[in-house]
UniProtKB/TrEMBL annotation:
GO molecular function, one term: ATP binding
Protein's name according to its UniProt entry: KaiC domain protein
InterPro entries: Circadian_clock_KaiC-rel, KaiC-like_dom, KaiC_containing, KaiC_dom, P-loop_NTPase
Domain KaiC: 24-283
PANTHER family: CIRCADIAN CLOCK OSCILLATOR PROTEIN KAIC 1, PTHR42926
Gene3D superfamilies, alphabetized: P-loop containing nucleotide triphosphate hydrolases
Any Pfam family hit: ATPase
């Protein structure tokens, strides 16, 4: 059998560097999140932290958690905020697009964003109404490529990526890898939402489909919630017994430095997500 050599896969560091994007942050519209990413530079022979001012541009970030922790709210908030500056593609896999856009209109009002930006700058791909998009990944990626070229899209949100492998979890790693490689090739700053089961550790990055998502993407944000059911928790979280506290943690980001603390997460009455102080206070 003749050996196959893929010469196109061999590239010098100098050539690879020409295609490397500059490390910079883009704002997310999520209060308390943008100042948690940083880079380190050497000044006077000492490393100094320099805030990025947002999540790394062109990164593919996974938001994971059990139900009712704020994953979809964060994803929609990011899409609405970014739509003020550039075109955003929102791939809805769980809820039909007409319901999502109605929810976004209400959230835009709460964020103080003109609802027209949703009409003009958010392009939906509705995978809930078109099963071939969920079942045939090449068809989905061809559709997404068409939308990116047609509308000059810069950001992609997928809610949820779990929907692409919910009946074939053994294929999860392959599917996530295909989508990740596509988003990187097209230089898209992306938010993926993935679901966890209640049996998973609350603040781990494990999602349905095993570790497929967390091991492939550039970074993971983990959300969780706990019921205050003891005086110990009431004292630690400074909440009365019977309330729920939501928690936030950046589990990793290979494109930049990041805050590692477990923080509180608040969902306001209008559905706006805010990242709060670390548990135990700032150090």
């Amino acid at each position: 059998m003749e050996k196959e050599i893929i010469t196109d896969s061999i590239i010098t560091a100098k050539e690879a560097l020409k295609k490397a994007p500059k490390l910079e942050g883009i704002t997310t519209g999520i209060e308390g999140l943008d100042n948690l990413f940083f880079t380190a530079v050497i000044e006077n022979n000492k490393p100094q932290k320099k805030p990025l001012g947002g999540m790394p541009k062109y990164s593919v970030c996974n938001i994971t958690g059990i139900n009712d922790t704020g994953k979809s709210l964060m994803a929609e908030q990011f899409a609405i905020h970014r739509a003020q500056y550039e075109k955003v593609c929102f791939v809805t896999v769980e809820t039909p697009a007409n319901y999502v856009v109605a929810s976004m209109k209400l959230r835009a009002a709460a964020m103080g964003v003109d609802a027209k930006v949703i009409d003009e700058n958010i392009i939906f791909i509705d995978a809930t109404s078109h099963y071939k998009l969920r079942d045939e990944i090449p068809t989905f990626l061809n559709t997404l490529a068409y939308a990116i070229k047609e509308y000059d899209i810069k950001d992609v949100v997928i809610d949820s990526i779990t929907g692409f492998f919910e009946n074939k979890e053994m294929m999860a790693r392959t599917i996530v890898r295909m989508i990740y490689n596509f988003l990187k090739k097209w230089y898209q700053t992306s938010i993926l939402v993935s679901q966890k089961r209640s049996g998973h550790d609350l603040l781990s990055s494990e999602a349905a489909g095993g570790y497929a998502v967390g091991h492939i993407v550039d970074g993971t944000i983990v959300l969780s919630k706990e019921v205050i059911d003891s005086s110990y928790k009431a004292k630690m979280y400074k909440k009365p017994i019977g309330e729920i506290i939501r928690l936030f943690r950046i589990d990793g980001c290979r494109m930049s430095g990041h805050d590692t603390k477990v923080r509180t997460l608040e969902i306001t009455d209008t559905g706006i997500v805010k990242i709060g102080n670390p548990i135990g206070g700032e150090s």
